[in-house]
Fold FAD-binding domain-containing protein.
Amino acid sequence: MVPISPSLRLSAALRAAVAVLHEVATPTPECCNLLARAFPADVSERDTKTWNFENNNFWSATEIRNPTCVFLPDSTEKVAEAVTLFVQHKWRFAVKGGGHSAIPQAANIDGGVLMPMHRLNSTAIDFERGALRVGTGVLMGDIYAALDPHNLTAMIGRYEKVGMGLAMGAGFSYLVNREGLAIDNILDYEVVLADGSVVNANAGSNSDLFRALKGGNNNFGVVTHVTLATVQTEGAIYGGVVYYPESSLPHVTDQIYDHHTRQAIVDTSTHVLPQYGYNGTTNETISFCPIIYNRAVDELPEVLRGWIGTSYTKSSLKKRQYHDLSVELNAGFPDGLVQEQRVFSAYADANLYRDVWAAYHQWLQKYQHIPGLYGLHVNMPITPHVIVRGSANGGNSLGLQSAGNRTLGALYFGITLDNMSDAPEVLPAHGEFVRSMENLAKSRGLWHPYIMLTYSGYDQPAIASYGPENVAFLRKAQEKYNPDHVFQRLVPGGQKPPSLH
Ligand SMILES: Cc1cc2nc3c(=O)[nH]c(=O)nc-3n(C[C@H](O)[C@H](O)[C@H](O)COP(=O)(O)OP(=O)(O)OC[C@H]3O[C@@H](n4cnc5c(N)ncnc54)[C@H](O)[C@@H]3O)c2cc1C
Ligand SMILES: *[C@@H]1O[C@H](CO)[C@@H](O)[C@H](O)[C@H]1NC(C)=O
Ligand SMILES: *[C@@H]1O[C@H](CO)[C@@H](O)[C@H](O)[C@H]1NC(C)=O
Ligand SMILES: *[C@@H]1O[C@H](CO)[C@@H](O)[C@H](O)[C@H]1NC(C)=O
Ligand SMILES: *[C@@H]1O[C@H](CO)[C@@H](O)[C@H](O)[C@H]1NC(C)=O
Ligand SMILES: *[C@@H]1O[C@H](CO)[C@@H](O)[C@H](O)[C@H]1NC(C)=O
Ligand SMILES: *[C@@H]1O[C@H](CO)[C@@H](O)[C@H](O)[C@H]1NC(C)=O
């Protein structure tokens, strides 16, 4: 038995919401024995080596929970048989991809079966079709490693250790400005539904499920394989991370706005991921910006030159391939600390962008005394072209069309702490702070309702933010594919639709 830190009461609201759903049985060790009889090689009890590894192998410490046992399927068939068992016995379970969500219990569970997907890790290239079929246990690094040698790439995520959860959420890739979101570059989902059947969802078959999964998270089934569109590369890209001192931040802020409204639009081969990192220990902020040009050039093109038109302390810009870049980026985001993420959307606006960072900087200084306090602010563009790509590729459920012909910034706020015991002091206040920034954006007429699921906080209504029409659409798809709400009642973790009927 692993003691649960009392500070996990932080998620009281979440747990209360979850409790409402629980007329279901919590799996007991006997249930896990039954599961182990069905899958002798794939089930690990509490306190075994495998259980310990799987229960701790998460980016955020908020995900380390207390599952009754761990089930590691290595085939679609096993997932289907297991889902049938879970439903039959009303056992709760959690589906884990790369374990990079910070929402408590998004991909783990207290009392229930933890089902990591990582043994489903195949990567198969279909050169003729221009597609890559992967098991949903792969990580982004596996995808780049499979495609780089063939001068191909896929539109997924940018960091080596992130998993396929983003393929049911949204997904910013290096090529987002040109090709659109990850979900809009998926050709097929293979899904295990609540009744244990395995179906394919794509433009031609189960097309409503296809659209629902593009934003629907774990609410429709367990996705076992995904077929991703691939595109040709020029064999290399030019990119790396540029680090700026505090004195260069005003320049970086100006570049962010210019990137959102000009650079990313006039040249869609650009990609920049600017980040401000405030370190409470030193009371210092640095900015570090992955800057990428998705073509085989030998230096930054003119359109991105502004990023090096100020003093910077360090740069890893060079000609390279995606896998190498994904490894470098991930190195700055180690596993195991206490993490919380929040996000909202606003129309690109230079003053808003500047004021939001200034306010966050002020707010963070109030918590400087908290061990390990680190605040990260990122602002990622969703250009009109990205939204058009979504519609052109069959549509998703995000409701972004309402942004019209203006760039949206996805404004991200991340907090890191050393100790869970400090969470109750900092995290609710962090929620308040982000709401105050939404209000600031509202007061200036710049707020947009979209909350990107993949960066959302546990109490942010990501799916409701898609708007009433999309919520109605998702509800209809629920009635058809998940009529007993199995993926809400038995899979309580992560973002859920606003109402069960
Ligand atoms: C360091 C870091 C870098 C990141 N970089 C990027 C980036 O470049 N681009 C970007 O868009 N996002 C990025 N993200 C955000 C990322 O998209 C989300 O954290 C996403 O949820 C990660 O998916 P996962 O599989 O790793 O996480 P998990 O926590 O394992 O899963 C997330 C959710 O998806 C569900 N899920 C996972 N697999 C399945 C499945 N097979 N079937 C059904 N449901 C499933 C889980 O139940 C869970 O609720 C990053 C996050 C971090 C921490
Ligand atoms: C990949 O899958 C194979 C076969 O299921 C398994 O043996 C291996 O451990 C998996 N790799 C990872 C990293 O899980
Ligand atoms: C990839 O591109 C590089 C540079 O153009 C070329 O030298 C190499 O042969 C290509 N490799 C493949 C597998 O096409
Ligand atoms: C913050 O600064 C301290 C002291 O220099 C350092 O040890 C720590 O690694 C920094 N934290 C991060 C996340 O960079
Ligand atoms: C932290 O840094 C800010 C400037 O960025 C400064 O105004 C403030 O006084 C510093 N706080 C402490 C406690 O040194
Ligand atoms: C919090 O973390 C620090 C290390 O950063 C450690 O020294 C301290 O003991 C921790 N406090 C608690 C209450 O866990
Ligand atoms: C959107 O804006 C771009 C430039 O800002 C313009 O070229 C394009 O025609 C506009 N599209 C629509 C549909 O208004």
